[in-house]
Write a structure and sequence with these properties.
homodimer; 369 residues; alpha/beta; 434 Repressor (Amino-terminal Domain); Rossmann fold; 6-stranded mixed β-sheet; 5-stranded parallel β-sheet; 12 helices; 11 strands; 13% strand; DNA-binding; transcription cis-regulatory region binding (chains A, B); Lambda_DNA-bd_dom_sf (chains A, B); transcription regulation (chains A, B); Peripla_BP_I (chains A, B)
Chain lengths: 369, 369
DNA sequence: CTGAAAGCGCTTACAG
DNA sequence: CTGAAAGCGCTTACAG
């Protein structure tokens, strides 16, 4: 009785066949196996309690079935939801998920990137620190890369990553939320942004400004605080008295802002209205419930998985939408015959379909939830 | 110019040495390398852009440096924090983390368990669905196992998992929070428990009851709802009018309960006081701020890592505490000489040091935050 | 201090 | 339909 875990050879011996056959049975191919032998093998597997060694399999195949998710903060509800959704999706496909939390530290992010590379992940989903975006690293990264955020001015060279994809449009989400506030008639608008030096702070400011300009108004106060509850709480102290409505760059900030306002006996939305982006299921349970642009994490996870697993990394929306946005993706690619060589640049956008979920924080429906 | 990723052999060729030497350099052993050769190798690594293949390394070593975390809900703030803390800790040790979200589904949990086993994880951290606890699976699981929760009546057979550890004492956390409420003078106490059939719901009920009995009071209403915001929200409808104080089994429930009370124009703590367990950084930003028993995720992660990485899986607290609880762990083990064979059962408890963090929801300090 | 070679547990042409 | 054997990229005794 050996104490070490049984290998494929043990199973083969037990079944009285070769180990190749065991492989064929386990993998349903690539060679056929007679029903009788198959049964013997299956039986031997059960008797030995054999569990395949995926490490060895990966080495032999030259490709692993694990993927990596690298985000800035696993404790951020939106990213936590995203992680959960992606884990579920990958699990349903028999894949496994490695996670990394960069905590907004660029060097940590780089180390994580390399660590995943050493682990031979087949693909990477990235929500990044953006100080100097490690574009070169991402462009040359082995395997498919899906970038969830990608600030303006940090475009990928189309030549480079033939497997790189772009993702969410954060400025558009900011615009949507802000436009809704403006629809209420508020004129003096402030933004709770992230740290001043971060590019994705500016990205959201950009969307906020766009909404304001489109309505002929003037942008108001910009408050730079961390993307945390504490940041939002501080923003409540910093916000000018004449501000009528505030856009928060994420749910944690909104949460902290609400707490800060309550602490100062200010009413939301009566004294100041509030809307945010990247809301989650929790938004409905804040006090007052939070109006926020939300993304469907499950939907995004589905789309990510589609890109990640497609062998050539090409993204194609199988949905029915096609012209919801001007100047769409894939437009520059002529309809070449599919049977051709994969001469695509591979760049593409995953449309994310942000949706405004109404709560009471903006001043809508004072009556019901 | 080859397009495939460079291997150790490529580096060796480039450096004009054998591949063994490259290994020695990379791994700082196990054989010494002359400074000169070392430099040549390092140079070759840089020139080729070589990144070691950890998959191959794992296969050769027979042990991987990835660990798995399996929880019931990654979107639960406490578990999200736990995930983050563990990721950080493992990263600092050069290890990598696989995550699984069972979503309280026992069969999903089992599949995840096997999937991790196929990935050859060196250890598993488990916060589990507990319907029928898969004790056998956990006891025979290859590698070290750390169980974060472990309901009463589901003890491990001491003979079995010589590498299995027990974790948090959830009933004690429930007791602490409830005892604090009682200290305020509340007499009619309700509990927002998890789903009726789950063992860890009962675990928390047990602690809640203990606190009540210890004060000579009678347990009051038990409300069974999911461990979610929605669950807590529903609890606000279900709670009896005469209840003076409520203990919530987790932060999400507390959050939902607060929203539900606000919706019904009931004041917390004036109409009903509230305290919870497994609070997080978010607790301070609820309205009113939540009094909750909290665990230090970082501290727990440190301890977990200690167990996970210790070769023989033995747990030893290096801290200065030793007799904070009666009938401690490791007591049955006579002080055998360390140089002996590892004849230990391996069972042990990681003390988690729950701490009560005071907010305003319980009725303390109505003045300040 | 350095190198040739076997072995980790799989997969998969290739030959029966 | 089945099996012997090479190969995936490492590690590490074992000889020099």
């Amino acid at each position: 009785m050996v104490t070490r875990r049984p290998t494929r050879d043990d199973v083969a011996r037990e079944a009285g066949t070769s180990s190749a056959v065991v492989s064929y049975v386990i993998n349903h191919g690539p060679r056929p196996v007679s029903e009788q032998t198959r049964r013997k093998v299956l039986d031997a597997i059960r008797r030995t309690g054999y569990v395949p060694n995926n490490i060895a399999k990966s080495l032999a195949n030259g490709t692993s079935d694990t993927y990596a998710l690298l985000v800035t903060d696993l404790a951020n509800p939106f990213l936590a939801q995203m992680t959960k959704a992606l884990e579920h999706k990958l699990f349903s496909l028999g894949k496994t998920l490695l996670v990394g939390d960069s905590s907004d530290d660029p060097s940590r992010q780089m180390e994580l990137l390399e660590s995943f590379q050493r682990q031979q992940v087949s693909g990477l989903v990235w929500y990044g620190v953006d100080q100097p975006l490690p574009m070169d690293a991402l462009e040359t990264y082995p395997g498919t890369v899906v970038m969830l955020n990608q600030p303006e001015g940090q475009e990928l060279s189309p030549s480079a990553g033939r497997r790189v994809r772009l993702g969410l449009d954060e400025s558009e989400e900011a615009r949507m939320a802000t436009a809704h506030l403006i629809g209420h008639g508020y004129q003096k608008l402030a933004i709770i942004a992230g740290p001043r030096e971060r590019l994705n702070s500016r990205e959201r400011i950009r969307g906020w400004k766009r909404a304001i300009r489109e309505s002929g108004l003037e942008p108001g106060q910009e408050i730079f605080v961390p993307y945390t509850c504490q940041g939002g709480y501080e923003a409540a102290e910093l916000v000018d008295d004449q501000v009528e409505a505030v856009f928060a760059s994420n749910e944690l900030q909104a949460m902290g802002f609400l707490a800060g306002m309550a602490q100062r006996d200010k009413k939301v939305p009566d004294d100041v209205a509030l809307a945010a982006m990247n809301g989650t299921d929790q938004s409905a349970y804040l006090i007052p419930s939070l109006t926020a642009v939300q993304l469907s994490e499950d939907e995004i996870a589905d789309k990510i998985a589609k890109v990640l697993l497609k062998p050539d990394g090409a993204y194609q929306d199988t949905g029915d939408d096609g012209d919801d946005k001007p100047g769409g993706y894939e437009t520059s690619v002529a309809p070449t015959n599919r049977s051709d060589a994969p001469v695509r640049t591979g760049l593409g956008t995953i449309p994310a379909a942000p949706q405004l979920v109404i709560g009471r924080s903006c001043g809508c429906s004072q009556n019901e939830v």
